[in-house]
Design goal:
By secondary structure, this protein is mostly helical. It is 71% helix and 0% strand. The chain folds into two domains: 52 residues, Arc Repressor Mutant, subunit A (Orthogonal Bundle); 143 residues, Tetracycline Repressor, domain 2.
């Protein structure tokens, strides 16, 4: 019986998260109301607060699960024997997919919300930076485990930061350029990552 109750709770939580994705995509983050999400999920508004204390907490939980799925598709950085540069590009393309789940207008609005110095915005900002940090740790470990591929000594942490900075710059450019397609965004990411590695790899190692 307890197992059935837990299954029902998990299903209710999943329904709420799916409804929130729909409402966030439709109305944006700031305009989305918990009552709308509850109606879409087929539950009472109070039920949502039993699972998520705030709208920001709900959004962060959605992002965290999506990021976990993305990380799950990545290989073990210490056991990956493939092409380092292509592996990093693949990881950044996975990062780019994260931004295809919602309209560009949603992300622009969310970036604005995250700059506000209120408790909810600060928690959301810290949570999203934590997701980014996990991705950069993977890139850092990948570079560290392929240290014998380089012609020169490369600091894994500095290299990961350079890749992260390029990725965020490309992401912001994509978000604020309505004419830029998602494929063009990924192609730009690939070019910039290859540029970072250019001239640093031993002969026979791909750049």
């Amino acid at each position: 019986m307890a197992g059935l109750r837990e299954d029902k709770k998990r299903q209710t939580q999943q329904n709420i998260m799916e409804a929130a994705k729909h409402i966030f995509s439709l109305n944006g983050y700031q305009q989305a109301q918990m009552a709308e999400i509850a109606k879409d999920a087929g539950v009472g508004t109070g039920t949502i607060y039993n699972y998520f204390p705030s709208k920001g907490a709900l959004l962060l939980r959605i992002f965290t699960e999506e990021a976990e799925e993305m990380k799950g598709s990545l290989g073990d950085p210490y056991n990956d024997e493939g092409d380092l540069v292509q592996s990093v590009i693949g990881a950044m393309h996975g990062f780019a997919e994260f931004f295809q789940h919602y309209p560009k207008s949603f992300w622009r609005e969310l970036f604005h919300v995250m700059t506000e110095e209120v408790e909810e915005s600060i928690r959301l900002r810290q949570g999203l930076f934590g997701i980014d940090e996990e991705m950069m740790k993977w890139v850092m470990f990948m570079i560290e485990s392929h240290s014998d591929c380089f012609l020169v000594k490369v600091d894994p942490q500095e290299a990961a930061y350079a890749i992260y900075s390029a990725a965020m710059s490309d992401t912001m450019f994509y978000m604020y350029n309505e004419a830029m397609s998602h494929e063009e965004y990924k192609e730009q990411l690939s070019r910039h990552i290859r540029f970072i590695f250019a001239g640093k790899m031993k002969p026979g190692k791909k750049e």
